[in-house]
Write a structure and sequence with these properties.
The chain is of the alpha/beta class and 248 residues long. The chain is 46% helix and 15% strand. The chain has a seven-stranded parallel beta sheet with strand order 3-2-1-4-5-6-7, sandwiched between helices. It is globular, with a radius of gyration of 17 Å.
Length: 248
């Protein structure tokens, strides 16, 4: 097992990519602290993790709440015996065309998708620095390249990629690696807010592989990045998008 007895925090773990990642890490031997505002979904994922024989700590709360995040990290260390991995996955969308976007819609997305990533990164980097080891994966998005109707989301996810690069430079010498994964169109609950006709258009005209990605396919990349197999990968943002976005 690639993560035998390591301890991981996965945020936004009640569904989608977060749930798939929690289960994938558990399959490889990790014990987990998982958080989300969706209590029912969180309980279901916790049951699945326990069925794999792993210890799990399920906490209901928002990553935008610094006090909650700090308590989550404290409880993880005390109840699970350490902290080796952070997967900063929690995120929301509040899509609306730019001139109609309210200050509240902007603030909500920035608070969760960018400030929340910072809150968790900062809280986890302190014990990881002290122990001289750790692996952090932040969830960015190919939307950082710019998507109409997503001023807030694109700005946040672009910020996550930049934050990842800065953190990698700070923490690399301390034995802590920081990378990001940028999903494209993934078959999750979040994508279901998109009209069916647009989803079909994406698959036919935009995505070279001709289909939506699956949450487990993103989770597999995250697993690689937090494992020892990625021991020389640091400061990278890896697109997982079926070839829809490429940069030379």
């Amino acid at each position: 097992m690639r993560l035998h007895d390591r301890v991981a925090i996965v945020t936004g773990a009640a569904q989608g990519i977060g749930a798939a990642t929690a289960l994938r890490l558990a399959e490889e031997g990790a014990h987990l602290a998982i958080c989300d505002l969706n209590q029912q979904g969180l309980a279901q994922v916790a049951d699945q993790v326990q069925a794999l024989g792993r210890r799990v700590l399920a906490l209901e709360g928002s990553v935008a709440d610094r006090a909650f995040v700090q308590d989550m990290v404290r409880q993880t260390q005390e109840r699970l015996g350490g902290l080796d991995i952070l997967v900063n996955n929690a995120g929301i969308v509040r899509d609306v065309i730019g001139h109609k976007m309210s200050e509240e819609q902007w603030d909500q997305v920035i608070d969760v998708n960018l400030k929340g990533v910072f809150n968790c990164l900062q809280a986890c980097m302190i014990p990881m620095r002290e122990q001289g080891s750790g692996a952090i994966v932040n969830l960015s998005s190919v939307s950082r390249y710019g998507v109409a109707g997503q001023f807030n989301y694109a700005a946040a996810k672009g910020g996550v990629a930049s934050l990842t690069a800065a953190a990698a430079k700070e923490l690399g010498s301390k034995g802590v690696r920081v990378n990001a994964v940028a999903p494209g169109s993934i078959d999750t609950e979040m994508l279901m807010t998109m009209p069916q006709a647009k989803r079909e258009m994406l698959q036919k005209l935009v995505i070279p592989l001709g289909r939506l990605g699956q949450p487990r396919e993103v989770a597999n990349v995250i697993l690689f990045l937090v494992s020892d197999e990625a021991s020389y990968v640091n400061g990278q943002t890896i697109n997982v998008c079926g070839g829809a976005y490429t940069r030379i």
